[in-house]
């Protein structure tokens, strides 16, 4: 069966502050969030378009409807499409706005669907559909760190998401994993996602781990990050006198 998504090659560059370099043959296209591009070689043209260009959102109404859903999720209405218009192979590279790891995921190898937190998506082969998914549990929506809305990637090609700090991949086999709500990056739809209180009242108030934890249960893959951007931002603010923090003497 032929793929619906463009087949692209790639290379992950770096260790602690990674970027992904995508190789495009003539006519191939990769889509990315606005502002994610680091560099591109000769022959590649780019254009901001409303929507991801997948077959599922063809037509003006489909593009407007999906753009509206992205606006609800706090994402940009437009995505940038990078296409190799010349001859031979050319490369375009993408990186996230804060230090971390790039996770390459072949959607065809995990059933064609992935759920991830907002802002985790970096880029993907043309044909990948980006949508929003609402958490099923009320508690997960109120206390899940990312609200009710998750981002849903669908297709059969390569997609690239970003994790702050070091990326950790866990494989659950009818198991349950509890994580800090901000450390969850992505998971397969077969994994159930919910929120539970972080221990007793004393642990919740003085434990330093927050009031709630995310619980992931079932069978499937889960991707975590060691340094959520919110945690890093909180530490920077706490150490910056101009922002109300205490001077650490640096």
Can you offer a commentary on this structure?
There is one protein chain. 34% of the residues are buried. It contains 4 helices and 17 strands. It has one domain (9-243): Mitochondrial biogenesis AIM24 (Double-stranded beta-helix), CATH 3.60.160. The radius of gyration is 19 Å and the shape is globular. The longest helix has 13 residues, at 60-72. The strands form 3 sheets. Strands 9, 11, 12, 14, 15, 16 and 17 form a 7-stranded antiparallel β-sheet that branches. It has a 6-stranded antiparallel β-sheet with strand order 5-6-3-10-13-8. Mean pLDDT is 81; it is low at 138-147. With 250 residues, it is mainly beta.
């Amino acid at each position: 069966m032929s793929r619906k998504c463009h087949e692209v090659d790639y290379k992950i560059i770096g260790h602690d502050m990674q970027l992904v370099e995508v190789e495009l043959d003539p006519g191939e296209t990769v889509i990315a969030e606005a502002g994610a591009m680091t560099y591109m070689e000769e022959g590649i043209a780019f254009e901001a378009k409303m929507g991801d260009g997948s077959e599922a959102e063809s037509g003006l109404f489909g593009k407007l409807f999906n753009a509206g859903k992205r606006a609800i999720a706090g994402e940009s209405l437009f995505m940038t499409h990078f296409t190799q218009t010349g001859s031979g192979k050319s490369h375009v590279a993408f990186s996230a706005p804060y230090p971390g790891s790039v996770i390459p995921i072949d959607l065809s190898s995990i059933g064609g669907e992935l759920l991830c937190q907002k802002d985790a998506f970096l880029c993907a082969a043309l044909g990948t559909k980006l949508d929003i998914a609402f958490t099923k549990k009320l508690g997960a929506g109120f206390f899940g760190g990312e609200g009710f809305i998750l981002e849903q990637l669908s297709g059969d090609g390569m997609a690239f998401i970003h994790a702050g700090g070091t990326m950790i991949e866990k494989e659950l086999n009818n198991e349950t994993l509890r994580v800090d709500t901000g450390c969850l990056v992505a998971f397969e739809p077969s994994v159930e996602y919910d929120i539970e209180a972080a221990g007793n009242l004393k642990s919740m108030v003085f434990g330093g781990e927050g009031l709630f934890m995310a619980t992931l249960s079932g069978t499937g893959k889960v991707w975590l990050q060691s340094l959520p951007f919110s945690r890093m931002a909180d530490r920077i603010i706490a150490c910056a006198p101009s922002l109300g923090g205490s001077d650490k003497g640096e």
